[in-house]
Amino acid sequence: MPGVLLVISGPSGVGKSTVVAELRERRRFHFSVSATTRERRPDETDDVDYHFVTVDRFKEMIEAGELLEWAEYAGRYYGTPRQPVLREIQAGNDVLLDIENQGAMQVRESWPEALLIFIAPPSLDELERRLRSRGDTPEEDIAARLSVSAEQVEQARRDYDRVVTNQDVDAVTAEILDILAEHEQGTQ
């Protein structure tokens, strides 16, 4: 039986990375390594954290259809190589993608059986509190991120399979795993 492609998205500050880490603790997922054109940070390893490529190579990957999804963000390209995902799914392994809305919509088009789950904040006030508590988000970015987040939640209600609210990491992780189990029952 083929594996499941699980796509997780959500606004900045919603706790998505924490939830994804918890999902990986509780269930065996192949976590797809994205390709990017951004510079490698000192603590990152090529082909582990990202596949670091040049802009020219990334554009070649787009043209050749080698990417399941891709987006340009802050002048840099990010994308998910198609073949490793396909290989894992065909081998019966579940694959987890942590990607932005734009990429999730590309996945929806090319892989309609993927399960798309959007993690929403309990409220915009709570999201603002979380963004401020990070201490690394410039004040002018907070208002912009909150505006984008409100739009993302509305889009998610239309375009994702499910929207879950992250009030508590353990609870939302369990909810996502329950949704995944329901999805698997429906595809057998």
Could you characterize what this model shows?
With 188 residues, the protein is of the alpha/beta class. It has a single domain, classed as P-loop containing nucleotide triphosphate hydrolases (Rossmann fold, 3-Layer(aba) Sandwich). Helices cover 48% and strands 20% of the residues. It is built from seven helices and nine strands, in the order E-H-E-E-E-H-E-E-H-E-H-E-H-H-E-H. The chain has helices at 16-26, 55-63, 82-90, 101-110, 124-134, 139-159, 169-187; strands at 5-9, 30-31, 35-36, 51-52, 67-73, 76-81, 95-98, 115-120, 162-165. Helix 1 (16-26) packs across helix 7 (169-187) and helix 5 packs across helix 6 (139-159). The relative contact order is 0.21. The model has no long low-confidence stretch (mean pLDDT 92).
Quick take:
The protein is α/β, with parallel strands linked by helices. It has helices spanning 16-26, 55-63, 82-90, 101-110, 124-134, 139-159, 169-187; strands at residues 5-9, 30-31, 35-36, 51-52, 67-73, 76-81, 95-98, 115-120, 162-165. It has 7 helices and 9 strands.
